[in-house]
Amino acid sequence: MAKNKILITQSEFARRQKFSRQYVSKLVRNGTVILRDGKVDPEQAMEALALQRNPARQLGRYGAAGHEDPHSKEDQHDQHDQENPHSYSGNTLTKKLTLAKLKSEIERGQLLTLERKYKTGQLLDADEVRKAARDSGRENRAAWESWPSRMSGEIAAELGGDPRKVRITLERFVNLQLLELSGDSDEDLES
Predict the structure, then answer these.
(1) b/e 151-175 (16+ beta carbons within 10 angstroms → b)
(2) What is the pLDDT along the chain (191 residues), one digit of tens a residue?
């Protein structure tokens, strides 16, 4: 069994909401407010208005921040809700919907900012950065490992030593330095 809803005339709805009669007629024409038996269901009308409200604009009829009506509808609805908790003013629903829309818009803006920064090269993909760091580390390690073989002949000639012994000594010290840089200990090398 359907709950009996209170239906009111368009004029009464306009008067209660402090809208012009023409504005309510416009809402009916564009389908925002649906008439039942030629009358307005205030609950449905307030929900419909809350769904189409722009969260970027201040609630109320005065619009600009800091220019609020001291006797605004919101205050009247809040007082009415406290006095009669079973009545419906739509104020609570309106606030919740507005906050949800605002949160959604903020998140969408943050995502668009990240996308723009990624496309302009201000942000990099973490996997690409890791791969580049790994590749750079491998190239540096390979350069250091090949250095004793290239330089042992020159160093041996300058010091008057055996090139093979100089190469073995350089390789040992280079490997120790690479281990130290990588954070591995001498025990790891021996095992």
Answers:
(1) ebeeebeeeeeeeeebbeebeeebe
(2) 456 678 999 999 999 999 999 999 999 998 888 898 899 999 988 888 888 776 555 444 444 444 444 444 545 545 544 454 444 455 677 788 888 888 999 999 999 998 898 888 888 888 988 999 999 989 999 999 999 999 889 999 999 989 999 999 999 999 999 999 888 655 554 54
Q: Is 38 helix (H, G, I), strand (E, B) or coil?
A: coil
Answering whether pTM is above 0.70, one says no
In this structure, how many other beta carbons lie within 10 angstroms of the beta carbon of residue 50? Answer: 19
State the sign of the Cα–Cα–Cα–Cα dihedral 62, 63, 64, 68.
positive
Residue 18 carries which DSSP code?
A: T
Please list, in sequence order, all residues whose beta carbon lies within 8 angstroms of the beta carbon of residue 98, skipping any fewer than 6 positions away: 50, 53, 55, 59
Nearest Cα to 94, choosing from 86, 102, 83?
102
How many of the other CB atoms lie within 10 Å of CB of 37? Answer: 6
Question: Computed over its alpha carbons, how large is the radius of gyration of the chain?
Answer: 38
